[in-house]
Amino acid sequence: MKGKRFKTKKKFGQHLLVAPSIIEKIVDLMDVSEEDIIVEVGPGTGQLTEEILKRSPKAVYAIEIDPETYPILEERLSGYGNFHLIKGDFLEVDLYKIADGRKIKVVGNLPYNVASLILVNMPFYLEVLKLCVFMLQKEVAEKLIAVPGTKQYTFMSVFLQTYFDIEYSMSVPARFFKPPPKVTSAVVRMKPKNSIPSFDIKGYKNFVSMLFANRRKMLRNKIDENILKKAGIKPESRAEELSVKDFIRLYSEYLAGEHKSDNQNN
């Protein structure tokens, strides 16, 4: 295998990070300990994986969709008994099964074409998540830390900030990748919040998404004015003006209103 050159594939959104200093910084952000169970999204040819393994975690589960990388990874990392390769699509893997009742850390240089899908999936694994460290398109990373009233503040900003404390750790120029992407990348660190709402995550996700659809529309055109008033939100407000706390309060009132109408119908 050593003589074979790996070719990245556009369909998998592959851009291999090849700068050792950046790789080390990403792994530093993970605070790897001997007790850690780490899940890596898309290890590619294993540069980041190998640096993680050097820090001696309990186990590394690398989930890779591209069959061409399997022999490369298996050969490169054959000396590590704590390395496990999962062959398949990350979005089809159940992290609860890997965690098996334990806490996990998730890391990855996320493919640009599925990064948003992966991010929006993370709140559904809160019970087993200790930490996430992701490399993303800078534009996406900026959405994750955006504040109300800005162009970058979107459904994803609100949904993920509801469940995670998010830090923008560093920008990574295109020259550190092969092939170089057309955009700048960034690394974010996401830690589950100590206190999160107890309501249904899927219902909340759909609610926030609905309020951000046609974002210039006033909220009174999307939701009962009485619910808005009970939540202390002006009916003429727009979704992009509300804080995360406003969304949590509004969804709680929305659920209470639904429950009330169900009781009346019964």
Tally of helical segments: 10
Looking at the structure, what is the overall shape? Answer: elongated
Q: What is the spatial order of strands in the main beta sheet?
A: 4-3-2-5-6-9-7
> What is the terminal separation in angstroms?
68 Å
Total domain count: 2
Helix content, binned percent: 25-40%
Number of strands: 9
Proportion in β-strands: 15-25%
Structural class of the helix and strand makeup? alpha/beta
CATH fold descriptor of the largest domain: Rossmann fold
Spell the H/E element sequence.
EHEHEHEHEHEHHEEEHHH
Q: Which oligomeric form is depicted?
A: single chain
CATH class of the largest domain: Alpha Beta
Low-pLDDT residue intervals, each spanning 5 or more residues: 8-14, 261-266
Mean pLDDT: 91
CATH architecture of the largest domain: 3-Layer(aba) Sandwich
The biggest sheet, with number of strands, parallel, antiparallel or mixed sense and barrel status, is:
7 strands, mixed
CATH superfamily membership of the largest domain = Vaccinia Virus protein VP39
Radius of gyration, taken over Cα atoms and rounded to an integer in Å: 21 Å
Provide a descriptive summary of the structure in words.
This protein has 266 residues and is α/β, with parallel strands linked by helices. The protein has two domains: 183 residues, Vaccinia Virus protein VP39 (Rossmann fold, 3-Layer(aba) Sandwich); 65 residues, Orthogonal Bundle (Helicase, Ruva Protein, domain 3), CATH 1.10.8.100. It is 35% helix and 20% strand. It contains ten helices and nine strands. Helix 1 packs across helix 2 and helix 7 packs antiparallel against helix 8. The termini are far apart.
